[in-house]
Amino acid sequence: MNIKTLSAPVADHKSGSLPIALYPNAMRREADGRQTFFARPVCRKRLSMEDIATDMIVADVNNGLSAEQIVAIWNSINNAILDRVSNGCSVDGGLGIYSPKITGRFETENDTFSPQRHSIDMAFRTGNNTKSHLAKLDVVIRQGNSAKPHISDVHDLESGGSELLTKGGFLEITGSNLAIEGTDESVGLYFMNVDDERKSVRLEKSKIGTNSSTRLACVVPATLADGTYRIKVVTQFTKSKATRKEPLSFVFDKRLNTGNATA
User: Fold this and answer.
1) What pLDDT shows up at residue 14?
2) Which residues of the chain have pLDDT under 50?
3) Which of 53, 83, 130, 152 is disulfide-compatible with 175, CB 3.0–4.6 A?
4) What is the pLDDT of residue 33?
5) Whole-number Å distance between alpha carbons of 147 and 247
6) What's the number of CA atoms in the CB half-sphere (13 Å) around residue 251?
């Protein structure tokens, strides 16, 4: 179908494919330490029924109806479905089944419905034909949330690993969108003390030797108190010349313990 409302150019979009974005799962890693990812569909645009009516006209499947007539019929169908569901019916709308839904806890079997404790909603269960159609879609994978900084690895050069922070030694951080940029007072590279936030240390941009979008390198502050730390990046960096208005942050999930550099 030649869909007018989906004609806006998107670099990696192909007709008939579903764009999805992969996001790093910061709360979970595999047993071997590998980073895992989860997917979300990319919402290209929120469409109205007027947009869908235009699609039908462009694709010549409107059966001679105008956009206004299509929308009017659709609104009438919606009202009829809502009326049936409001009276306790389930309605098979083709794409799926609409049903009434009650949320909230009832304290006893003789309890009454209370708008303060309960709510009425409409549930939608995908139909088999819809599931069959979606199962055949091609998928285009993008990098999720590309604007947000992400740390993929922290490497302590003195110990040669990512379990130890060597005070006075060199630390290398790799990932994406890491460059420490911006004038907000929160911007910086943080050594976050897990047990006592007051012992956390922030490095400003001037204290970071290598400061690029994919790599940060710095000297681990010798003033760090002994303990366990996590690395945090706060930045207003963007891939354009302008800086982001609101800072974005990322906290590396691995914990690192302090140690001293050997002479």
Assistant:
1) 45
2) 1-14, 263
3) 152
4) 65
5) 11
6) 10
Report the relative pairing of strands 228-235 and 188-193 from DSSP bridges: antiparallel
Residue in 40, 7, 10 with CA at minimum distance from that of residue 24: 40
Q: How high does pLDDT run on average in the chain? A: 84
Angle at 175 between CA 172 and CA 177, to 5 degrees: 115
How many other C-beta atoms can be found within 10 angstroms of the C-beta atom of residue 229? 23
CB 237 within 8 A of CB 180: yes
- The residue among 228, 230, 73, 74 whose CA lies nearest residue 154 is 230
Question: Other CB atoms closer than 10 Å to residue 254's CB: what's the count?
Answer: 13
Task: Tell me what pLDDT residue 144 has.
Answer: 54
pLDDT at 79: 97
Tell me the CA distances in angstroms from 114 to 82, 105, 109, 110, 120, one per residue in order.
21, 10, 14, 13, 11
Task: Indicate the pTM of the whole model.
Answer: 0.51
> pLDDT, tens digit, for every residue of 102-129?
999 999 999 999 999 999 999 999 999 9
| pLDDT for res 8 | 41
pLDDT value, residue 32: 67
Q: What is the DSSP string of 131-168?
A: HHHHHT-EEEEEETTTTS-EEEEEEETTTTBSSEEEET
Which two structure tokens, joined as six digits, stand for 222? 């010798």
